[in-house]
Structure formats: structure tokens, C-alpha cells
Amino acid sequence: MVEMTGKERIRRVIEHDAPDRIGYAFSSPEQSDLLLWGADDPAGLDLSWRPAADYRAECPALEGFRGFVRKDEYGNFWGRVESDAYSKGEVLWGALPDWDALDAYELPPVDDPARYTEFRQKAREFPDCYLVGELPGFPFSVMRNLRRFEDFLMDVLLEPENVQALGRRVTDQLCRVIDCFADAGADAVMAFEDWGTQDRLLIGPAQWRALFGPLFEQLAAHAHARGLKLILHSCGYLYDVLDDMAAAGVDVFQFDQPTLMGEERVAALLSRRGCTLFAPVDIQKILPTGDRAAIEEGARRMMRLFGRGGGFIAKDYPDYRAIQVDPAWAAWAREVFYREGWYASPGALPGPRQR
Asked: Most CB atoms within 10 A, among 163, 260, 271, 346?
């Protein structure tokens, strides 16, 4: 029996079209159906962490900060404390500190087609792999960084017209980025945008629907018009707008904490909407326990709930050290996915491998 290519398998998983097994997106390339890759960094861009003193002349707001700082392509200054060696940090000073500067602010050229040369090479190098383009942001994530997180949450309530104006500019550029990935050979694009705390959305559902729902719809429609699927990563609780996001056109949801919102109700919603879950075994409640039986059952439970003839892609977390998980514990989950993630017949639940 000839096995499907990764490209065909992930397409079928996402479309619930009788794949031979669940999708794999693991750290080892030979054990992955999916490859995630971004655009090329521009020449001369320095994203390394440096002592805060190196940037104080350029950004006086860093005065008194003791730690390390980096400047991103958008002009935001990120900081992290000296003892933090793993996190991406937080924006200490945004490139758009005052709305009066909105008209003069220029977004960086992340939509320059010349920056997708390496992605094109990956498409040629891995023709059987489902190739996902990593977007440089999504409207909420780009804007909250430009304005700084705390200020932007107030903007949502106090400055909705400015939020909408900036949102249109960011979204229009992201549509051009989607075009670049489509032209370079992508099968999907993926956005990284955290929307929740442990128990609630960062903004009210009404504000999400008014300010961000239309931007999601525009981006999803543009991706679909170019033949691409849209994948969204988010940490935290977002169940109050999960159905809205699915209705707007998100095809795949990447959650690292799939138990946070209740697996059963998330599975029911995604199944009803024809969406797919892309996730590791829960990195908060299950993997950190080091309990082999619980981890293995967590993997089986995800396949039972989400993997009914498609609808589930199992993945690794990118940095187990950062969450204090022994890689051997994650390997126990992978072994279950490898051994039991196969379908005996179209639409069947995963089970021991059938050949």
C-alpha cells in the first residue's frame, strides 16, 4: 500500500476528506507532514538581544530598565529581564506611542516579494510536504505591539476609529503578504496571535466582533481566494469568539492548551464548523506532570475527540525547556500518535496501524 504524501495527507485532514492517518508536525523533519517557514529577514536587520544601555540613546524610555533589549522591524523595543533566557519578552516601547503620528508611520516592507526567495526554495526542496507560510503578525498582534499592550487595550474602548484605521492598513498589507506566500508555493498561511488569559478574552466579545471580526473575514477570504488555508495560533481562553473566528474563515486552530476551554465543547464546535485542531498534548495540565499514563491517555483522548476521519494534526511544542518538560515525556505522546493515529477505513476513529 502506497502511503499519502504529507501534502496530500494534511490537505485531507483539514478538509475531513478520508486521510490515511492524523497529521504529524513534529520537530524531526522525517516525521512531519508539515513545514512552517517565514519570509527572509532583510539584510542588516539585527534582532539579537543586547544590553538595554545600547539602546538608551535611541529610546530614552528604556532609562532605568535593567535587562536585555531588542528592536524589531516595526520599530518596537522589546525587553526581558537578565534571568530570562527563553521568552520572547514584551514590548517596552511601541513604535506608535501617539496616535497623532499614525499618518506618518510607515509599516516595514514585509510584503516585498523579494523576501520570499528562501520560501520558494523550500517549496522546491520539499515538494511532498504541506508548506505553511508564517505571517509576520495578524492585526491584533501587530497593533498591540505598535501601541504597547496596555495602551492598546485602552485604545479598543477609547480610540476605536484610530484602531480601525490602523487595522485597515495592517490588514491590507497582510493580504499582500498572503499573495507573496501563494506565489512562492505555500499551501497555507499561519498567524500567531494570543487572544486570552486563563479564563477570558483580552477584550470584550462585542469589541472583537466590531473591530476584529471584519479583519479576520477579509484575511480569510483573501487566503481562500488564493487557494490557501488559514491557520491561527492563540494561547489562552477565547471560547466566547471561537465560533465567530471559525465563521470568519479560520480553517485550523493551533492551541497549545487544548484542555483550557474544555476539550469536549471545543471538539463539538470545531466538528460542526468543519475545522481542524493543531496541537500537542496539553502543555499546562498534562505534559508537565511527567505521568506517562496521563500523557498517553491525553494523546488518545485528543484523537478520539478531534480525529474522526480528519480534523487533527498532532505537533511538538517548540521549546520544551521553556516549559520545564523533559523531552522524553513528549516522546511518550508521539509514540501513541505514531502507533495509533491510523484509520482503518474512511471516517473511522484512529486506532492501531492498519496496512
From this structure: 163
